[in-house]
Sequence to fold (908 residues):
Amino acid sequence: MKDDKNKEYSSYLFILTIITLFPMLQKGIMCNDELLLRKWAQGGIKYFFRTTFVNEYIDKGRILGVIGNLKFLSYISDNKYIFGAINLSFIVIAVMLYVLIINKLFKEKSLALLTGAMILAFLPFTFEFSVPNAFVIVTLQPMIFLEIAILYHLRYLEKGQRRNAIISAIFFLWSMFLYEFLITYVFVFTIIYLLKKSGEKIIDAIKRTWYYYVTAILYLGLYVGQSIVFPTNYSGTQMGIKSIKDILRVLRVLFSSSFPTYFSYFNEKYKYMFRYYNDGNVKWSNIVQLRYVIYFVVLFILLKKVLSNSEKNKKWCKKDFSIIAIAIIYAILPALPNSLSLMYQDGLNEEQFITIPVSIYLYFSTVFGISYILWKLFSVYSNRYIITTVSLIICILGGGVQIRNVVFINEQERNYNKITNIENVLSISYWKQFGKIVIYAPSLYTTMNSLAIEPGHWTEYSSRYNDLCVDGNIESADAKLEMQEDGDFYFYTDKWGILITSRLQKGEKILDAINNKRQVVQIGNILWKERNYIIYDVTPIYYAKIGERQYD
Amino acid sequence: MQTRDSYIDVLRGIGIISIVIGHASWIITIGTWKIPIGPFVYLYHLAIFFFCSGYLFKDNEKEIWSYIAKKLKGLYKPFIIYSVLYIILRNMFIKMGILGGEEYHVADFLIAITNSITFNSVGELLAAFWFLPVLFFSLCIFTFIHRSTMYIHKRNMQLIIRIFICAAIGIVGLIVTEKHYGLLYNMQIVYLMLPIVALGHVYEKYMDKVNTIIGFPGLLFSIFLLEIILKSDVGIINLSEFQIINKYLFYPVTIIGIYFCLCLGKILSYSNKIKKIIAYVGKNSLHIMALHLLCIKIVDVFACCITGQKDKLSLYPHSFNNIWIIYYIVGVALPIMIWYSINKVFLALKRKKDER
Fold:
């Protein structure tokens, strides 16, 4: 019977996972760093490893991070669904291991499930450079290793085999190799020891977990060695203190942004962005969606069951407050190394960067803290109606997050589709007939939200297919290329023009030209057909005024 | 055993109600919510019948020809009866205005009768009957595969080989359907549906294990997946129009659709009353299939009289978009009532005859 219940809860959690993380398959790449990696991967696996090794590890002084790094997995294919599925699986593993740790640590399935559900329900998709939007494997592989280390530590505490302690320490070291700030988690092992062996003194616990401190010191030694052998020029890892106020600001912004619903209800920038991309505030059409209804039902059932099932008649004790305090500390502490970086002291505030890769760690900790408070509250004051009300409130708040997620993901998908559209057009063999020409194409370099395209990106991309130099700055180029709102491309000189489109077209059409001009053109004969694209000969008739009707 | 059969009737009930829904509406609007109910039910509504037939297939079915004769009686006989009835009444329907097109003359009658004798659907208000020959031939081929693999000693190997053969034929079906090759008796759909028949048969064997993942969470999950498929605009399933989304997605989507029906069936079966009603609908699915389009047009006759829009009457399969709920109820209930009444009359006549 108990097994059936657990199976039921797990299946609800599984559905919630799929519903909330499904956008991972939809969004594609949303930041420049990942676009760069994608371009390298498109150059072949050898080129990818060589380039990332130099640019990501040697230049940034992170040579230790190369050990067993699985970042390449995201780029084994440039298909967005494969990219998304791999990233999604890392998130799922990270969340599930977290749930497992909580379950093993507290022996409370309801607390573990509640935390898992809350993490998923409130996980925000934004334009920030953090999980789940970007750097998924980079950030979550070390998290997964840390979680494995903690699980082995728990096993060691339960079963006492030394092998478990050694494996745990190795995974902890490995996780630090992959992300430096994980050194702040060295205390977690001692804390877990204290939670498991109640009544022990802190000093004794430290003594019992000495090997983690030795591992951390070993890592520090290696880190210093690495920075001597490969001096870094990456500002993200260069420490410095501009002012204490800046450090505190970084910590404050990161801490507050790790709160569930922060991006939906508290950050002005994202509130504005939502209204902008949604054509106004939350509408009925945002809510009346099957996906949303299922999310609501699943989360409500899960919360209600989990909260009703928490062990009753427990009283608040010192241990509970300590656990909440630790959760709060770990919603700040991992960000401390980043706050000491000059780059973040400059650029991290409510208007620019709001979250950074470490934020997902803070988010997990914050959500655990909130879940623990809720779980404890309902253990002490159990009331059916209050549980229903609280579950409903959580669902409504989480629903707000999901509504915003859908809108932002749709925008990210549009941005990504533009990139793939440009890639497809630049790779057709039609261009070969032009030989080495310089094309002025500023619209191809337009930044779309967080997706900036670095100078020379498209020239480098094209070099695999043709000799085009696609530039965003050289106005005195041989020809001009302008991407249209509908995904078509207008390629032209003063004497002739062509339209690259994926649809059959005829008659007159208004096309966007360089420098915010518009041209009315007569669509002529088909010059070329390749893949999905049709290339039309077009004759410019006259320059149109902004707002003139578009022919199709 | 009793429970299993009624569960299968519930599944059939869900299938036939979905067929009526699919023919009575495509996109329904509730407030600002546009629900693509038609494309949704089309994702599974026919496959579930093949699945049920596979489930009901008995392993001890040793005599191929007696089984085929049984199926012929069950499918061909009503096919002929309803077809002939429709052919006879067709001119009357045209005169009433519920059917468009030209009236039949003697030659047309002859052609139509010959077509129906040779198990070809007459179309129009009996359009849904194209499904019966497809089901018949699917079961014939499945029986043949089953029979010819019976000599393999190991049971598991038997099953694996059967699945493999059905899957291979299914792949042929995918290719043929995607290339729009219309084979005689819609054999392309027969090929497509063989793996589904096999799936139903496998389900019967492993029912206890599979049922552990069937329930309310599964229902929500399958609805979510089916909605994604519809929203992603990859295409729809409409077998009679050669639409199978694409060759990679057809089976996964169909299986999700069947899973949806299994979960829905289980949820509905929690209430004994609902279970009985849906199972009763399922038991009469053949008659509903035959009569629902006519019943929808009967609703249209009344609706056109009330609204005065008689020019709309000949629209097929229904004249109005906003009275779908009436179409659903009448499309399911009226055929049952008609069949029930006919049955009663026949029984009474038989009783009288016996008394004499």
Summary: DSSP finds 14 helices and four strands in chain B. Chain B has a mean pLDDT of 91.
